[in-house]
Amino acid sequence: MTTTPLEDVTLGSALATLWQRHRQTNLDRISLLEITAANVLRADVDDDAIAKGADAAHKLAGSLGTFGFDAGSRAALEAECLLREPVIDGRVLAEAVTALRASVEEVGDASLMVTDAEEPDVVLHGHTFAAHITSSDTDLIARLTVEAAAIGLAVTSTNALPSGDSLNTDLPSSVIIDDQPTSAWTRPDLLRSVSELADKVLIIVLTDCQSFEERLALARAGASGIFPRSQGSPQLISFLAEALTQQVPAHSAILAMSAHAGLVTTLSDALSEPDGRLEIQADPLEFWHALEERGADLVIVGFEGPQVSGPDICRMVRGHPRWNRLPVIVIGEHDPRYIQEAMAAGADDYLHTNVSSHDLGIRIRHHLESARLAQSRSDTDPLTGTDNRAAAERSLDQLLRLASRLDEPFALALTAVDHLDVIRETEGSAMADVVLRRLGARLQVEFPGENVVGRWTHDGFVVGIYGVTGEAACERIADVLRAFSGEDFPTTSGKLARYTFNAGVASFPADGSSLSSLQRLSETALRRAKTSQKNILITGERPPDGTPDVVDVVLVEDDDTVADVIEYALGLRDYSFLRFSDGAEAARALGEGLVKAQVVLLDVGLPSLDGFGVLQILRSQGILESTRVIMLTARSSEAEMLRALGLGATEHVTKPFSIPVLLGRLDQTRARASA
Fold this sequence. Notes:
The protein is built from 24 helices and 22 strands. By secondary structure, it is an alpha/beta fold. The protein has five domains: about 10-110, Up-down Bundle (Four Helix Bundle (Hemerythrin (Met), subunit A)), CATH 1.20.120; about 130-245, Rossmann fold (3-Layer(aba) Sandwich), CATH 3.40.50; about 250-375, Response regulator (Rossmann fold), CATH 3.40.50; about 390-545, Alpha-Beta Plaits; about 550-675, 3-Layer(aba) Sandwich (Rossmann fold).
């Protein structure tokens, strides 16, 4: 199997993005080499410092070429060889390290399409969306494809202006039209295409024409977004994700307090469509009890009540830490004094008691959409009071950097409520929200202070725990599970229900040194926890029933920089995989049958046990009879290649390697393993 043109483009842009993620790590390695070279010239260096310098050079030699820094990879390999000599030539070493630094700085970040912009805050969980890009700019397509992939948005592309007929067979959720000055179509063609598609899909136009008249014409044709062609890809995809999310039917909970029969009828008619749940209470105490127990997305109250007025309810809602952002609509007589009092109390809207059901429905949907938009833009998840994903990622990154700087452990856990979609379907969205809210509250109580608790997915949270190992984190998460699973929740049948969650844990430095690696490892552990009899699993832990993990590929690589690139490439081909960063751990898991794979990608330079040692164990235990091994190494001597092949390796790939070449070798090896 060969890479497709779009796959090549996507991978090329992904390498640029991944380089930015690991850029500082590699620059730190170069700085370490510079210090080592200076100390060698001064004859002020010990064996331990030399070993650390050689290790840094080894990792640079293996990773820089993959990102396109071929000269840097060669310079790093030269530096490694020099540092492993009995007598080190300091002058030649200094020249090699100088060339290494220059090779990286000469390329520059701009040509790598790297951006410091944050990833979009909106993640499209639970919904399937697709975008179609019309452009002949492969660079633009690559950047948009990578950014879209980060939020689960599938992308297709052509260079022909789309029409309703051309897209009818597989209508995407959105279309991005790149209107370049050299485009084959005319201005009327563009406007006609936008007008034809606007009622079917969301349209975004990229154009260099930013005059008022041009924007007006595109807006009248139905374009939902009009961006300059120079606009950054993250901002464009973030806008697109936000717009698509707003198009998802809102299954919202509306809570009303009114004893007015006519208003009750109007409310019922306004929400006759199956896009929400309406609950009406006449008694203020019952109304407040319903809000506390079942929650709501919007509140409607009559101005006058037998005991409590609409403005009173507004003040109570605005003063509540959980509900203070809820939209509140007050309905009453058209009296300026009433309107002023309601608005002063914090109402978002005031409507006359004779409002039609149609107009009321429009107002309700408007306030719900505005509330959802405000929620997505806030750092705090209003539903649970925890950080949202964007804010959590920033805090996790800071906490991991602190742990690395102070040489402290750090654990990352991902949780997911069991069968939350079923709860939402059977008990309603409000009850599912209550379950999430209670779990979020328990996690915040258990992990306060410098720890991080954030809403990560539609059904779960991320927890960053400073100063603890993975095992200790599992124990603390288990305490939360025991307490949470003992809570009672009301159901529509009148009975009480109890719910549980799953969790996957990865830790620094045992499992990985980058936030992206820890996230992926904990995601893998979470998937395994969902399919096992144990709710909480740490990376590498064996499920209690002894059933092995069966994957396409096992990656054994201790360098996060290289591992990130390979993992991305494996994901591009939809290969299932597990990663180990420790040789002894990988040998134990594979040798004891805890993990089974068609192919093992095995690095040579590993902690605890090097790749040759791992390969020897796999051979002695008969694993190689059903599993093929591709060796990965920054060294390429004939003796080393022969040693790997003699121990049973199928292939030997020298770092730095081309990802398409590695994927080709992997495809061939898997095909032979399946034959």
